[in-house]
């Protein structure tokens, strides 16, 4: 079968996404409005019967002073990644993007490569001789994704290296809590003792979790800035979150939610929740240094998990982790916190680059590395 790739409308893209169990929220046309500094384009894959069988949101970042772009498909495109012939899917896309002025293409293949169960993750953290989860035998290996990895290499794609200036993209390692065929009691029993105790303590302390709206974003942002200062990261501006809420809610009135945890009138934790079909994500979180003992963060996570299940999600995604299980690594606390939910570690095929003009590709990398 020969596929043809051409630009499609946002409405066509939304309609195609709606036919699938789920796609990444980064592959929805609404996400292009959030990333307004990038020029956007929705692509469609059409088969011999002219049926739309694949789609992808492309974000174009222009090289300064030159009318050439990096074409980026975050956690996309949405195609058959189990195909025995990925060239039939990817080559029409790269031809289209090259004709449109792309000097390189970056994809974020949304195919699961390996999984580690909660028991395996906890055992790895407890074993002083193990420093990386990738050194631990996984509980599940997806052979179709292994085949996709080999095909990408053969077709000239390569994973971006960690020292590249624009290498920071979407996480390859994430932590997910499966929800399918589990009731609330089963989910709670699957959590570790500390999580169950903290959820119970929050309830006993009188923590109340509610859903907010766009008018409550300034309150969220206030404690988000406090979290950024405490955890040493650069916060996004309030306007970014306002744009995100307006864009995603315009596409689907239940695409994104704001959760607020209060204790005796004080906001102690706040989070954002995103859902596309059967996949729900915890995207941003914030908490105050004061009143940490009332465990607002655990309470708000538990509410989001329950609501994800009630909305029909089969996966609650806590997003990125690192590969480390080394007790001396400062990042190990992240996987320990998320492992407490009873979920599993997941490795995706991840991001891959195809340089179409190697000179410009290197120049763009240098430009991005100098920016910061």
From TrEMBL:
<dbReference type="InterPro" id="IPR050644">
    <property type="entry name" value="PG_Glycine_Bridge_Synth"/>
</dbReference>
<keyword id="KW-0808">Transferase</keyword>
<dbReference type="Pfam" id="PF02388">
    <property type="entry name" value="FemAB"/>
</dbReference>
<keyword id="KW-0573">Peptidoglycan synthesis</keyword>
<dbReference type="GO" id="GO:0071555">
    <property type="term" value="P:cell wall organization"/>
</dbReference>
<dbReference type="InterPro" id="IPR016181">
    <property type="entry name" value="Acyl_CoA_acyltransferase"/>
</dbReference>
<keyword id="KW-0133">Cell shape</keyword>
<dbReference type="GO" id="GO:0009252">
    <property type="term" value="P:peptidoglycan biosynthetic process"/>
</dbReference>
<dbReference type="GO" id="GO:0008360">
    <property type="term" value="P:regulation of cell shape"/>
</dbReference>
<keyword id="KW-0012">Acyltransferase</keyword>
<protein>
    <submittedName>
        <fullName>Aminoacyltransferase</fullName>
    </submittedName>
</protein>
<keyword id="KW-0961">Cell wall biogenesis/degradation</keyword>
<dbReference type="InterPro" id="IPR003447">
    <property type="entry name" value="FEMABX"/>
</dbReference>
<comment type="similarity">
    <text>Belongs to the FemABX family.</text>
</comment>
<dbReference type="GO" id="GO:0016755">
    <property type="term" value="F:aminoacyltransferase activity"/>
</dbReference>
